[in-house]
User: Fold this.
Amino acid sequence: MATASVPEAPPTATAGGRRRARNTRARRDARAGMALVSPTVIVVIVMVVLPVVWALVLSFQRIRLSGIRRLDVFGGEYTLRNYDLLLGSDRFLDAAKTTLMYSVFGTAGAILLGLTAALLVRSSFRGRGLVRGAMLLPWVAPVVAITFIWQVLLSPQLGFVNAVGTDVLGWDSPIPFLSQESGEIGLFGISFGVPTALLAVIAFESWKSFPFAFLFILARLQAAPPELEEAARVDGATPTQIFRHILLPQLAGVIALIAVLRFIFTFNAFDEIYLLTGGGAGTDVLATQVYSFLTARNDVGASAAVAMFMAAVLAVGLIVWLKFFGEQERNA
Amino acid sequence: MSGKRRRWTRNEIEIRALRVIRPLGIAFFVLISVFPFYYMILLSMKDISEIIESPGSILPPINDISTAAYERVLRSTDNGGEGFVRFLINSAVLATATVLVTLAVSILGAYAVARLDFFGRRKVGFLFLSVYLFPPILLAIPLFVAFSKLGLRGQLPVLVIVYVAQTLPICVYMLRNYFETVPVSLEEAAEVDGATRFEIIRKITLPLAMPAIAATGLFVFMIAWNEFLFALLFLVEERNNWTVSLGVSQLKNIETPATTLMAGSVILTLPIIVVFMFAERLMTEGLTRGAEKG
Assistant:
């Protein structure tokens, strides 16, 4: 500070000493910082970076689980066979499509529900804290438990949903939500096919993840200045206009962030689909395919290739997204 | 004039509609969030024949509460049960060890990122990307191969390391958010008094951030307790080492009535809900603090 306020002052002994002191301090801080952060970095390198590199290597090898004990880590022959096999396989292409549908609609559903919920509980009312806590339940509860609850709820024999559907809503027969690949819906005399099980797992994903979107959007809403809305209200803006022109622009950033995070998590999700349908009835996604290659078919190489494909899709998607939105932000 | 009047009526209509829609909407969200859990508890205490007879009945069975499902789940396998007591202990040990290791590592890392200017400080974001961008199942393949080769695959300590790696980045992120709220002036005052960096962390920052650290620890506990994929891949052949999550998921493989499944799910879910009730506010604040800036 002292040196900055006297810019042209000749370097006296004290100023030089101070600068040197500041330099050694900065250096000491830098050293301490690296030392403190190194355990984190080491864990990530050993448990994440190295495995990714190794998975990449594995995806170019023909390796079966039975041969693991004899496995030579980086030796062995390299081949494109795994990728060749995938690109020629309908099952893989179908799973890629299903994964995309599942991630896009699961993300959109979670954000839509979360946004609605956040707008509803935004202003205070009695029991608001309790309501907020209750709405987080689907997100904090163990995935194994909630998938089983929904399996029972949707079961054609003893499920509550089908009981209400047939007794109250007048369905002809119970719907096997999680095991029917496609069903028919009649609406205004026109009937069209729907991918029942895929819709069911998308609905489940939206339900399970809406609290995540809710939490972030609510936090952002709470930080929005009330003066803006007050001014709009005085000028005669209606609630929907206030939402559209005042709130939504403020929420755009956080919604974009949630969209990316949710898309990544849903794209990578394995537990939900594995536990709900086992990947059957048209819900086989890439993650469940990796698992079945690894365990049921014993083919480490092919499973690594599918997983690398997933990572590549996400990486490319993220780069494009960052370019697009990063530029928009800079222009704004 | 007429335009102005029309806008006013639209305003009136919207405000009135919202007055009705809002409580209905809140009720809807509470219902979809809570009802499945109510249903789980309800079924776990019913008799399976009752459920098959009237699947639409959702009133609590006040007169004849059945604890048979819980007894079956908790009894040891030697006595014809599912041995969940053992799984509960495994899960508790595994999750607690994960919390301790993750906190020890991430407190140091988060402090460095929050306070110290070092090379690469701004690149912490890449840490997150590298961990969460890659599908867990991608990481699972080489880890599965490596630990199989080493003959360590079914061991709980191996799973602790995996869980630490999975929770570390989110933990560093949350703790950094908290540490940044501790006033720097306090640390500077201690430094003037001759305290070393390590003493400052131990005597000033940690005590001030203690509630936040506890909340972060509980968050990690939740993730480790709920985790399924790695437990399935690594432990499935070692029944003695099963976690509760894995135990419940494997209940389905055998011919198990829905009541038992639900009793297992209750046992799995209850500890998490208790943990969550204690730390909800702090946990969620630490997560969303970055979002408030937009």
Notes: The first helix of chain B runs from residue 2 to 44. Chain B touches chain A through 103 residues (CB under 8 Å). Residues 74-291 of chain B form a domain with the MetI-like fold fold (CATH 1.10.3720.10). Residues 78 and 284 of chain B are 43 Å apart (CA to CA).
